[in-house]
Amino acid sequence: MPRIYLNEPQKGRAIANLEEGWSLRPVTADLNLSYCDLNCCCDQDCSLEDRLVFDHCEEDFHYYDRRFCQYTKHTYINNTPQEFQVNQNGLFCIVHNNLPPSYLIQQKHPLKSLQEAEFQKMNKYSWPHHVSEDTIFSNLNYSYGKPLWILRNTTLETLKIMNSFFTNDCLIKEDVKYLIDTKNICSHTEVSEENYNLNAAKYFVNMSIIANPRLFNISLHKKECPKNICLVVEAKICNEYFENCSQVAKNHTNFKSECHRSIARNTLSCINVVQHVRYDFYHNGTYGIVKANVLLILKNISFAYVKNIDFSQTVEVKFMWWNHTLNYSSYLSGNPGYLIGTPVLTAELISVNISVNNTNSSLSNSTHYNQLLKLFRNPSDFTNNFMVLPSVSLDGICVLNKHKYTAVEFGFNLYTKCKINDYILNKNLSAKNMCINIQQTIFKYWSLETTNNTLGNKLIGQFGNANVHNIDEWLNVMYRDDLNVILNTTWGKFDQKMNTLSCGNITTLLTINFYHSRIDFEDVINQEKILGVVFHFNKFKNITFPINFKEKYFYFTVQTGAQIGFFDITTKKIRKLVDPPSLNIKLPHDFFYPFVKINNDGVRQMCLVHFIFVSVIFVLLVK
Asked: For residue 290, which of 145, 177, 138, 142 has the smallest C-alpha distance?
């Protein structure tokens, strides 16, 4: 192994002495554009001060042949003020080789047919891992994965949130880790005023966030802590989508939870119960927390007073850079290949009118438009940048909007089942048209928008860093079933006596199959690439709905499902040498006519000419 010797920094030299052209090489851990990625030591967006918060460097997937003498210039990137020298202490290394050029044969081309997709099906699974950390207070700067400290009254402790263990019940408390986003969902079996976890005051009253442990003095600051060290948590009460939030003062009592039991009705009613909590921490890397917000969703509940009570609560924690602006289109799911558990990239193919000035002198003031196809991703909407399915509420209802969804994560098979509760406007529509509207509503919950009975042009990113400006990096979805055929074969029938609407040929199950392969991309090895996506509609049913013909709106409920499958079609990599160059010369039959010699027996002789010509051709080939 080569040894590295550090020298003192020299004046006038750059801190980051990166190899020329390095920015053109993909960095596998760089998943955010123009933004410092945590623990990505080769991210040029990270300053030296940003890197002080790192506790390790993410794995690099670049391939370097260590038999060559110059490989170290690719692997050792100096991101420090010091200079280093690499001592290659091996006995021999390769300076140059004379092997012919070669290339890899691997499965990297997109699938072109349904038959090829079916042939390549395979099942593979992968699981994430969890690393535990200690919770001992130390006067050091926050770093990735360390516990977040709070001061509750005069007690110094770590910020903890509830989580489930084996069952759905809230049984254990977990530390909130610095820079690690968390979302825990569990059920409380005790619903009462004594359950402090259901009271909004627990999450911000008499509590302050330690901005930076290095600045906190236990002996001085427990009783009186400066506001720039012990940050006040700003609380807001929001609606179910974290919108229309209103500021809450600590001395207000309008958020206090109260419960009342009705003996006559044997019911328990509670108001202002905390259903959803979201902490938003804005940080500045090693300098710690800059601002802390908590958003609360409160709910009034009432249920029969029995022994078994389940109330589901969600607690989220998000960390954001202080100067960061939310932009979902800049979020990558790998660089370049997909990472397991990251959402699948999507984009919409739209037509844009480009104005073109008319150069004709007689029509100098006229302007016409040309249509241009381009990809579009709304930076403020997650569902417009990644593939999503409906989230399922506690009572089994499908919910799909900008705030509630189920992301399709690369490498994880998924099966969802829920009920759609929706309505359509009853404008003297025929039974067939009402049933078509029901089918289109089901498509909408599958994120399949339809226009004039045609599915929207949704494309899938082949790599986790697919460029929205390069359409070749995106895949068209293959549909096993024609949408026009499905909608045209849908039928409907009214029954005036029974007040029912019968719909036939309604598909209620969507199957999505992803075909992916691990390939080598330039000098990055084993990068996951999506080669094909197939949509298949299943479970065609005849459904009867109750209907009130006098009502303006027709409300309906239909059970739907979706299943996601990932199939690894990686083939064995074969290195094949490039074929040597060949020279194919075709000469006319009389090419040697002036040099033909006739001997005494009448036989033509061209041996010398042939020898000279073949020698010339051989010399050309050798060169």
From this structure: 142
Cross-strand bridge partners of residue 417: 561
Closest-CA residue to 248 (of 263, 233, 261, 262): 233
Instruction: Parse the chain into domains and list their residue ranges.
Output: 149-324, 335-357+367-571, 581-623
CA angle 120, 122, 123 (to 5 degrees): 160
Name the token pair of 297. Answer: 């969703």
**What CA–CA distances, in Å, run from 135 to 147, 152, 170, 203, 436?**
6, 16, 21, 20, 58
- pLDDT for 307-325, tens place per residue? 678 899 999 999 999 988 8
DSSP 254: T
Residue-wise pLDDT for 466-523, tens only, equals: 999 999 999 999 999 888 889 899 999 999 999 999 999 999 999 999 999 999 988 8
Instruction: Report the 10 Å Cβ neighbour count for 116.
Output: 14
Q: Give the end-to-end CA distance of the chain in Å, rounded to a whole number.
A: 40
Distances (CA, A) of 229 to 211, 218, 290, 293: 5, 12, 9, 16
Distance CA 404, CA 276 (A): 13
Which two three-digit tokens encode residue 182?
């968390």
Question: Is a pLDDT exceeding 60 seen at residue 578?
Answer: yes
Q: In whole angstroms, give the CA distance from residue 418 to residue 396.
A: 5
* Structure-token pair, residue 379: 């930076």
Most confident of 26-40, 43-57, 170-184, 447-461: 170-184
Query: What is the DSSP secondary structure assignment for residue 593, as one 8-state letter?
Result: G
Record the pTM. 0.72
Alpha-carbon 185 to chain mean position: 21
